[in-house]
Amino acid sequence: MHSLIIGCGDTGVRVAARAVAAGDTVTGVVRSEPSAAKVRAVGAHALRVDLDADVLDLPACDRLFYFAPPQREGDTDTRMARVLHAIDSVPTYTVYISTSGVYGDCGDAWVDETRPVNAESERAKRRVDAERQMLEFSPQARVLRAPGIYGPNRLPVERVQEGTPILNDTDGGWSNRIHIDDLATIAWLAGTQALTHNIYNASDGHPTGLGVYYDMLADMLGVSPPPRISWAEAEQRFSAMRLSFLRESRRLSNQRLRDDMGYELAFADFHDGLAASLKAEPD
User: Fold this and answer.
1) Residue 230 · residue 173 · CB < 8 Å
2) If we measure between CA atoms, which residue out of 218, 206, 210, 277 comes closest to residue 238?
3) Confidence band (pLDDT; 50, 70, 90) for 22?
4) Are 281 and 152 in contact (CB under 8 A)?
5) Mean pLDDT of 212-227
6) Known InterPro entries for this protein (predicted)?
7) 3 state SS for 53-111
8) Of 3, 8, 10, which Cα lies nearest the Cα of 281?
9) What DSSP string describes 236-255?
10) Phi-psi region of 24 (alpha: psi -120 to 50; beta: other; left: phi over 0)
11) pTM (two decimals)
12) What whole-number distance in Å separates Cα of residue 88 and Cα of residue 25?
């Protein structure tokens, strides 16, 4: 079997390692030489390509893992359109990592995969378009809607150590997360199993207020919890992108994923996920 990973970054390298261990021939598509070196380090082939500008000559594959984000402007994912046009035949397995942002703001509601998409930001609208493209390209494709991804070197350590304020709990909503190792395993399982559904919430299933996450990280780092600020002050201090994330609240259910894949997350409790991530980070 040949696995082709488009956008072989942190998550992709982890999937590549799993594919290599399973005996696949693996090609990871990256843009930079440092990224290519990480792909080669796990035993995979690295293909350096600019997905927006280069002529795309992509190898045939049995498993397609598409992890590249859309370009930064517009309502459609033109990057994905170029890639899918360059693939000659539909792979047996296709996996796309999307975002839970396609649901928009859901307040306190629990959200499963039957909820209609309601993308509010241009960024999320591009993801909705990407999901549509992928499912039209391959009706058996598996779309993984991921929330915030955390793991080694993906924690707001400096922000917490510097005492950067966060939005207070009364003004903030629910946040969701997934450890990067769990996401990689879920993606690999989606690319190797016959599954009942096309769309899965790839979340740890334990939403919390954002402050709970930051306070726990601060405690593990041995520093004071981040100070809280109001929404009015946040609008003055935070970037437009950060505010767009904070405006949305939802509680993601991962029941479908656990039922269909039979996967028990390694880090369903983000306390353990944070501890493991900090332990894995270099001093």
Assistant:
1) no
2) 210
3) very high
4) yes
5) 97
6) NAD(P)-bd_dom_sf (IPR036291), NAD(P)-dependent_oxidoreduct (IPR051783)
7) CCCCCCCCCCEEEECCCCCCCCCCCHHHHHHHHHCCCCCCEEEEEEEHHHHCCCCCCEE
8) 10
9) HHS-HHHHHHHT---EE--H
10) beta
11) 0.96
12) 18
Per-residue model confidence (pLDDT) at position 281 = 77
Structure tokens at 238: 């935070």
Mean pLDDT of 127-147: 97
Contact assessment for residue 141 and residue 95, using Cβ atoms and an 8 Å cutoff: yes
Backbone angles phi, psi at 183, to 5 degrees: -60, -40
Give the distance from CA 59 to its chain's centroid: 24
Map tokens 């990280």 to a residue: 217
Task: Report whether pLDDT(283) > 80.
Answer: no
Give SS3 for 2: strand
CA distance 82 to 188: 24
Q: Please check whether residue 175 is in contact with residue 207, taking contact to mean a CB–CB distance below 8 angstroms.
A: yes
Q: Which two tokens stand for residue 103?
A: 């649901």
Residue 18: Cβ within 10 Å count: 20
What residues form DSSP beta bridges with 179? Answer: 150
Torsion angle of the four alpha carbons 25, 31, 33, 39, in this order, in degrees rounded to the nearest 10: -30
> Whats the size of the chain, residue-wise?
283
Query: What single letter denotes the amino acid at residue 276?
Result: A
Q: Which two tokens stand for residue 212?
A: 């709970």
- Specify the amino acid at residue 63: R
Q: Give Cα separations from 166 to 4, 254, 264, 278 (angstroms).
A: 39, 27, 31, 21
DSSP H/E element including 264: none
- The token pair at 10 is 């942190």
